[in-house]
Amino acid sequence: MKAYAGKILRINLTNGEIKKEDLDPKVAAKFIGGRGLGTYILSKEIDPKIDALSEGNKLIFVTGPLTAAPVPTSGRFMVVTKSPLTGTVACSNSGGYWGAELKTAGYDLIILEGKSEKPVFLQIEDDKVELKDASHLWGKLVGETTDILESESAPKSKVLAIGPAGEKLSVIASVMNDRYRAAGRSGVGAVMGSKNFKAIVVKGSGKVEVANEEELKTVNKKWLQKLKDDGITGTGLPTYGTAVLVNVINESGVFPVNNFQDAYLEDTEQISGETLTNNYMLKKDPCYRCPIACGRYCKADEIEGGGPEYETVWAYSADCGVNDLKAVIKANFWCNEYGLDTISAGCTIAAAMELYQKGIIKDQELEGSPLEFGNPNSIVDWTIKMGKREGLGDKLAMGSYKLCESYGHPEISMSIKKQEIPAYDPRGIQGMGLQYATSNRGGCHVRGYLIAPELLAHPEAIDRFSLDGKATWVKIFQDFTATIDSLGLCLFTSFACGADDFAELINAVAGTNHDANSILEAGERIWNMEKVFNLAAGVAPGEDKLPKRLLEEGIPSGPSKGWVHKLGELLPSYYKERGWDEQGIPTKEKLEKLGL
Question: Which range marks the domain in which residue 462 is found?
Answer without folding.
Answer: 426-546+566-593
